Amino acid sequence: MTTPHDGSGRPWPQLTPAQRFGPLVLVVVLLLGAGMVATVKGGPTGKADSGPGGTTGGTGTKPGEDGDPWSSAGDLATIYSEADEAGTLADYDWGDGCDPETGRIELPTVYAPPCVPAWGGTKPWVDRAGKAHADNGGATHRGVTADEIVVAYYIPGPQDLLGLAESLGIFDDASARSALLEDMAEMASDVYETYGRKVVIKPFQATGDGRNPAQARADARRVAEDLGAFASIGGPTQALAYQEELARRGVLCISCSPSAPDTLYQELAPYVWSVLASPDQIIQGVLDFGVKNLSGKPAVHAGDPAYRTRERTMAVVHYDLDPPIFDSLTTRLKKRYKEMGVEAQVIVSYLLDTNTLSAQAQGIIGRLKEEKITTVVFAGDPFMLMDLVTAASRQNYRPEWVITGTVFTDTTAVGRLISDQDQWSHAFGASSSPARGEPNQSDAWRLYRWYQGKDPEATKSLQVTWPPIQLLFTGIHMAGPNLTPETFAGGLFRYPPSGGGPTAPQISYGDHGFFDQLDFVGIDDFTIVWWDPKLVGPSEQQVEGPGMWRYPMGGQRYLMSEPRELDDSLLFKDIPESPGILPEIPASDVAPDYPPPPGSPAAGGN
Q1: Average pLDDT, the chain
Q2: Stretch(es) of the chain classified as CATH 3.40.50.2300
Q3: In CATH, which superfamily holds the domain spanning 32-277+440-493?
Q4: Does domain 280-431+523-588 sit in CATH 3.40.50.2300?
Q5: Other C-beta atoms within 10 Å of 186: how many?
Q6: Which residue from 155, 161, 152, 177 is spatially nearest to 252, judged by alpha carbons?
Q7: Could you read off the pLDDT of 347-376 as tens digits, one per residue?
Q8: d(CA 72, CA 129)
């Protein structure tokens, strides 16, 4: 057998499992579970166990059956723009933290939610239907009392991917992460409206290994019953049973399975939420973009010179389970693109089984080479991507590689693990993640410093800690005092689409016309990327080295639902304005500057 090499004749280094997979844990830990989930067998029935206030879990109403049964509810909070349009701004006390210029709270981020009437203000609190509320309703749902909202913070066991990340030093340890979460929740509690309730974070040490469904269900029962939680932030990385069991008991699961298919969110609505886009949305958006910009043109970016003059022949390689969970998506996309006059020559699925990935990759590459595929569109996980590229080099097959950004295949950490960097220099595609800037200019870092008056210590965990806290508090803020999973959903669905700049992806929930189903995940758009193996800079773990994704046009973003046609040169290396790290925050992503709240540490408070 020929020894695999890096394109220059030098043999590839033999990596230990820790060397090969360790850097992946950080970028995969929240998303790898998508390839391990089981087919959902029905959602909430409305017969969940009663919570402390005698309330039950769900309504039994599925969004696919009756549309959106939540955002039109009358007891939701009135928002500033509604009152402004109705000419009733003076009827409400908007509090000291409302910016009348923007109609949003004074939080220096483009994701600041709309102002809502201040609870306990100088005027009676009246909901959007005109009903006055003298109190907050007390125990409105499991985990909610007149004084508290209990939220579990899931701390995985050592066998879970997140536990492995901690042991390898990729993530901060559990105590540092918990402290960071408390700090971010303290800030959110000070600036978001919580209607007289304190959000109480309760760390929960998991007993499962992140994969075992029975253990995951047992942990979910403890979160619901022993902790009495309204919501869980995080969950086991590879066991869908955790959020299934929480949903059955009427408990929200936030950022528990952010790369699960849309069917999960629809079946378990309104209990499962995420900030990251679903694979369905990413694949549809990226393929739409590819149809407009790649189809019918020569494969000019292929590694094999003979391919560069041929009209593109495309194959899609994606992960799935046995039985398949993406059948409906595949059927929908085939119909969609056939109507557009385009068909993928080959669609190949693989099973995310780390014991057989290498063998599967060899077979897939053999088929793609035999069928003379010039362009491989990849929608899977980093482990298979590494094996596919290795197999392609072994078989002297050098196509164009088009990534869709699934399971963080759009990160520098993953790109550097591709053994044949000459092969990977022909990779480009789409990323739904923000364009990268300097770490201390990220939204989470700037907000922490704004409120705490100092830089965060748990910097390795910052970017995965703030988004679910932001989602949680936005839903509470928008729901009004009668907090239930249904009003939480109604509130988020009324949150206006926000962001859309290079470092601030557009975020929305519900039905804003971007997708053909109700949307329970945040990010709506993506940017174009291409891989430069010679560009030196920091990885996501701040490790300096060669190999980075570049962002053409400074990371300009495109809605997944509205693909635009671009000149082919804009997709690759002919644009000089393609940084790997944006030198500063674009003007579109800069929010108004506000002084920190009077009681914050930065303002001299406790």
Answers
A1: 83
A2: 32-277+440-493, 280-431+523-588
A3: Response regulator (3.40.50.2300)
A4: yes
A5: 17
A6: 152
A7: 888 887 778 999 999 999 999 999 999 999
A8: 10
